[in-house]
Amino acid sequence: MTRSLDEPLVRPFGDTAVLVSFREAIDPAVNDRVHALTRRIRRLAASDDPFGSPVPAYSSVLVPFDPLRVDADEAVDHVRVLASSDDDRTVEGAEPNRTIELPTRYGGDAGPDIDEVAGWAGLTTSDVVELHASVPYRVYMLGFAPGFAYLGRVPAAIATPRRDSPRARVVAGSVGIAGEQTGVYPFESPGGWQLIGRTDAVLWDVRRDPPALLAPGDTVRFVPVKS
Amino acid sequence: MTLEILDGGLLTTIQDAGRPGFGHLGVPEGGAVDPDAFAAANLLLGNSADAAAIEMTLSGPTFRVRNAVTIAIAGGDLGGFVQPRDRRLPPGAAYGLAAGDTVSFPGRVSGGARAYVALPGGVNVAAVLGSRSTCLAGGFGGLEGRPLRRGDTIEAATADTARAELHLPADSVAGSGAPVVRVLPPPAMSDRDDGLLAAFTAAPWSVGPDSDRMGLRLAGPPLAAERRTVVSHGVTWGTIQLPPDGSPIVLLADHQPTGGYPVVAVAIAADRGALGACGPRDRVRFREVTHDEAVTALRERRERLEATSAAVEAAAVAARDEESWLDLSSWAGG
Question: Which of A108, B138, B297, B305 would bridge B270 by S-S if both were Cys, CB 3.0 to 4.6 A apart?
Fold first, then answer.
């Protein structure tokens, strides 16, 4: 069976979830559909029904359901209808587009991998800073840790692959690059991204509502500051 | 009622039934890694099955009891005993403790790798994002978002209403650490994946020492890992991922909400307890089942919990009728 490029694949994922997969790509248009579907399912989940809170990613949405309350086939059918309906691309319920600036100290102790990135790119470290801070980034999804936002896309010239061996300890606020993705570590944690800078912005504060500074669809700009 | 922690043990955290609904912010579902043992501990005290309890891992805490209290213990036998009476406290039972008692869990003797101590009404900590579970990755929930340590005090949510000392029937207590975990095929089933699933379910696995609340790392002959990259997508508790080194990882309660490794299989929800009971070097096997079998198993699990709850209630009523309430003061002197 063939399906159009636009039609998502909707399949059971284990016995407690349905996975909706759009075209596998890191693409703003695909990601818009992801978050439109997520909003629609979240509204559904807020009412008394067997669906749980969806987990959006770059090009997919995982929809949990209670298998004791809804048959898996029914769950798949229900989600498929929601996922292929025409108002998929509407922005109804979308948060207004926000731009969040992250003051960032590049290089030195704050960005121990900046020389490696510069070497990989064949550029100077100030070129790396300029390029990284030159473009607006889209928040595609949150994951990895509370408040960790996957941002894209990093200019190709500095889209350095992950480190061969991850660090056991990355300082909170570290700004990293992994290929065309960039992001900020909200907590001290292990991590394999190339660290080029650090921000004092608080990415996660559980006393804040919402606790995550960044939300899908937001625009992020890194603003170089003196260390 | 207060417990004073003298030693935190290996990894002792406050957990309840978890914090679903925040995966889109990167927050793990969390909660008790062995939900069966967790629920049993609560039911033994007449708590709701999802009240916050103390989760212990391999070797538990040592704590002093400040005021007489009834606690329940369920899960693996971590060698629990109470001083000064030097009485063993095997899991699957509720026990009366006297002020001044010291309880220790020196290490795993038999059964699962995790055990739970339930307190009357649950552990009294604030709910954060709708749950009392400790989120270690985010440093919130439970007690200051971290494992228990010396100097902490733990309060029960309600005053102790001395309950009869109760024991679960032996057959309702979780078995040893050699389970067969039931799995469903991954969503992206191709011919190649089919072979991979067959190889995965045929192999005897053991649990690696670097396993934690996020996942079980399986040790065995490595599977032929695919080199294809996957754009990260949402994953579930029970998802079995295959990193490039060919050693599968079974995601547990504290798993990251999204993952980018190929998926070999997905363990059924009814077997989360069996996974959570696995500790380092335990053997574990996997068996493919159908979706219908998965749902039947989940229904049976629910019925088992309901039966346990009814049995505990009946025993409490019988004890009341016989006026054979546990006399804490005489017990303490015995």
Answer: B297
